[in-house]
Specification:
single chain, alpha+beta
């Protein structure tokens, strides 16, 4: 959900994304999108993590947050996503162009494990807007990121756009797209309060 290093897209790319972003291009269908790493087998989710929209969003934030060197429970993260689940960072590059990086959860894990080993990263939800219809939900979640829980100011804020589906038994993250704010794109006031 949030970015941590300027190398990502510049001022931040969301969800601890740190690799350079590919040029903007049409996104291929999920079946045709190659993965940087082979997807791991889908681990079983903790029932409490996927029982509700509130629970799965809370679990997403928890699983990526921690002190420098603290191991993340990557199987827990994998268990939150549908097998077809995707993640995408969107942001502005230093030259002003907009970049996007699409990935599977395992690609995200591979890109960020080294950074989490040397840097604290705590992402929390500031506000949320949720729309749902039947088994489909869209969560617009405003986030703040800090290097330590006690930091007075976040080093980054932005929006996580989370698409969720329910199969009648549990919620799954189908897609997660994030965009950090920057000087040319500050967060609007309406996204700083839950609605």
């Amino acid at each position: 959900m949030a970015g941590v290093l300027a190398a990502a897209l510049a001022p931040g790319a969301g969800m601890a994304q740190t690799a350079p972003v590919a040029p903007v291009a049409p996104v291929a269908p999920a079946a045709a999108a190659p993965a940087a790493t082979a997807p791991a087998a889908m681990p079983a989710a903790r029932p409490a993590d996927v029982a509700s929209i509130d629970a799965i969003v809370k679990s997403l934030y928890e699983v990526i947050s921690g002190a420098a060197g603290a191991p993340r429970d990557w199987d827990r993260m994998r268990s939150l996503f549908a097998p077809e689940g995707r993640m995408m960072a969107v942001g502005q590059r230093p030259d002003g162009s907009i970049g996007m990086r699409a990935m599977r959860p395992d690609d995200y894990i591979a890109r960020n494990t080294k950074n989490f080993a040397t840097m604290g990263f705590y992402e929390t939800e500031l506000a949320r807007t949720t729309d749902s219809f039947g088994q489909v939900a869209h969560v617009f979640s405003t986030y703040e990121a800090r290097h330590a829980p006690g930091d007075a100011k976040p080093f980054m804020r932005g929006i996580n756009s989370i698409q969720l589906v329910n199969d009648g038994k549990r919620w799954y993250v189908l897609s997660l797209v994030w965009r950090a704010e920057d000087p040319k794109l500050p967060l609007p006031e309406r996204y700083l309060q839950s609605r």
